[in-house]
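User: I'm curious whether this sequence folds into something compact or stays loose and floppy. Could you predict its structure so I can see for myself?
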Amino acid sequence: MPLAEALDKISTALAVLAYQTRAENLVGMYTKNKLVEDLLLPVFQVLFKAPHLRNLNQESKNFPHIDLADEQSRLAVQVTTERAAAKVTETLTGFLAQDYQQRYDRLVCFILTANKVSYKTGTKTKWQKTCNEMLHFDPKADIITIPDLLSLIHGLPHDDIYAIN
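Assistant: Here's the prediction. I'll summarize afterward.
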């Protein structure tokens, strides 16, 4: 399969997932929200070079503040459809309150939305103060939406793109 075809299939699948989940959420159907964690798990394993990334919600129902984690690569991921700054703030404060920074060096907030998100400078400053050198959190790199994800996938080696496809 040509690389362009693999990238097109990945793009289409992610776009459909984002729009379908959004439409279902608008009518009160939230079943896909939890499925997204498992659907994207292998993508994140390849993308972040975290082969031991696992779904914590399968080990403990509604695991607090993070959904996916890999202790060996020291990566934690929160998967959400909520794009408000308050969700990121809640995730950061909860992550630090649980002392997860002792086990994970990086926290990624994946927001399942077809649009890029932006936050006010004051909000990002608040996040920096919240992390207070306990956790390096860069909103540009650590808040990822579908367009960001596609861009990151596009920059991967061809074998990784084929693995994701």
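Summary: The chain has a mean pLDDT of 94. The longest helix spans residues 3-26.
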